[in-house]
């Protein structure tokens, strides 16, 4: 059974930082690209960041470039999203996803497995 479990969300003031984690089980994590997406009520899920299976290739949404960093530890079957200089517009439920292809893709419909999400709330 495949499981992706996000953690690290919470309430933070604008300008602060959070680090999200996503622990995977039930898949050969080392051959999956991993992505982070986010969603707010009434809006479609949007791409945030992705990383290839080796970590050698990454992608970021323009809105988070320079503030967020994605990383992975294949020995721990975990992907991370370090979020700095958080803004109110970053408030959302954040989801991690696994993609059997090696590249860091931005299209959500191409991902095979999804976590349940973790809430990030940024206050002013």
Brief account:
With 124 residues, the chain is an all-beta fold. It is built from no helices and 11 strands. The mean pLDDT is 96.
Features:
124 residues; mainly beta; 7-stranded mixed β-sheet; 4-stranded antiparallel β-sheet; 0% helix
**What's the shape?**
globular
Distance between the termini: 40 Å
- Radius of gyration using CA atoms only: 13 Å
Question: What percentage of the residues does DSSP assign to strands (E)?
Answer: over 45%
**Average pLDDT for all residues:** 96
What structural class is derived from the secondary structure elements? mainly beta
Largest sheet: 7 strands, mixed
Q: What is the count of helical runs? A: 0
- Order of secondary-structure elements: EEEEEEEEEEE
Poorly predicted segments: none
Total beta strand runs? 11
Secondary structure: helix percent? under 10%
Account of the 3D structure:
It is a single chain. The protein has strands at residues 3-7, 10-13, 18-25, 33-39, 46-51, 58-60, 68-73, 78-83, 92-99, 113-114, 118-123. With 124 residues, it is mainly beta. The protein starts with a strand and ends with a strand. 34% of the residues are buried.
Can you lay out the helices and strands and say which pair or pack?
Elements: E1 3-7, E2 10-13, E3 18-25, E4 33-39, E5 46-51, E6 58-60, E7 68-73, E8 78-83, E9 92-99, E10 113-114, E11 118-123
Parallel strand pairs: 2-11
Antiparallel strand pairs: 1-3, 3-8, 4-5, 4-9, 5-6, 7-8, 9-10, 9-11
